[in-house]
Amino acid sequence: MSEVLNECTEARYPLEAFAADIAGIEMTLDARAIRMKSRDRYAVSPLLRTMLEGKEADVVVSPTTLDELKRVVSAAVRRRIPITVRGAGSANYGQSVPLKGGILLDMTAYKGIVSIKPGAVRAKAGTLVTDIEKATRESGWEMRFHPTTARVATIAGFVAGGMGGPGSVVYGILRDRGNIRAIQVMTMEEQPRLLELTGPDAQFAHHTYGTTGIITEVEMPLVTAWPWIEAIVAFPDYIDTVRFGVTLANQTGITRKVVSVQEWPTPRLIRQFAGIVPEGHSICSTMIADHSWQDFTALVESQGGKIVSMSAEGQGPYGAPLWEFVFGHALAQIQKSEPKRSMVEGFFRAPDLVDLVSRVHAKVSHYGPMRMELIRIGGDVVGSGAPYFTYESAEQMATLVREMQEAGAMVSNSHTSNVRSVGKKEITERDVAFKRAVDPHGLLNPGRFEVEDSSDAKFAIELPTDQWDSRLA
Fold it and tell me: Could you give all domains of the chain from N- to C-terminal order, each with its CATH number?
């Protein structure tokens, strides 16, 4: 083992001494395993494929207990070896790709439900979201919302790097007050501490890519679980589809979970929708509670739409839950047909949301068909989406961003890999102070969120995107 350690690290980090410190804890130096664990789904971005090429850990460590995790952290700090925490690697931003090598901390074996009570569930970091949903549904509860990658994503990965998902049309996003009950984190110190972050303080660990403490447990709010009906509604005109989507999103009396508008020819680009959607029609993909079905069908009829598919959740003719064909997950489906398709992440907020979407669509529709999820941010219905365009160059992508901004949209950066440059995290002096306190040596996922922003990793290409501001606060 020592010869392999010396050969593979070139003395960049004292891994031989580290291995001795954590003897008995699962670790691997297998090149194939390291390569696999040092990636997530960033390949959907043509820019990140270049930026993160060749970035890998030196060793993968997989603790199974809290005591093992403490030993790993203590040894890493003592030897000054950086740690990049990883769950299932289902994210699209490359957040869990080690920029400076070191330890890839695989948390997927640290899993299990801690507690379920009326209105709340608590689980260990590596617990799959779908396993949480299965457990809570046994007592009639479900999460307010979940990622579209719920079948593979861990709960800690979701809160550390996610934003929203199916259910966000009603309950908002993770940064909205009350959507995370508590996060327990371990500090990156030689004598690690466990901190319980509750209420607004839970935001210290949300969307920071594991740079502000190692998440060990998460407590999330629950709501009543309903039998869901998946429906695809078709319209001949895209803006009519948007209008229906906005109307449905605002129907507080109809229990809904997904409202996703996809412009033609998106239904043709998604192979699984072949034969379901009429030629030339845009669609609104939805999930409606069975008790609201009659009111929903009446709304569809009043808006001039046609229901072209309906099924129980997960039983549709497209072979997967409908929520795997919306949000960023839809791009992965489209790339199976057209690998060069890409997108940016626009946000649309205005008193007349349909008018704003219409203006942006008129400006950028020549790039490709539009995607638009309706969600809530700060209580308001907001559109999230952009065209699926065929990637040609970074300059082309930057032009698209500017044109969307000129038409009134805000655009975050889904083609970069650190907290500040993505633009979704509102960073205050308290956030920086917390980072300094829990990671005094800057060893957690270095380059992704540093105390001094000048020390953040700088990628070769920066898009002219927006930072989160008062328009979406």
Answer: 228-412 (3.40.462.40)
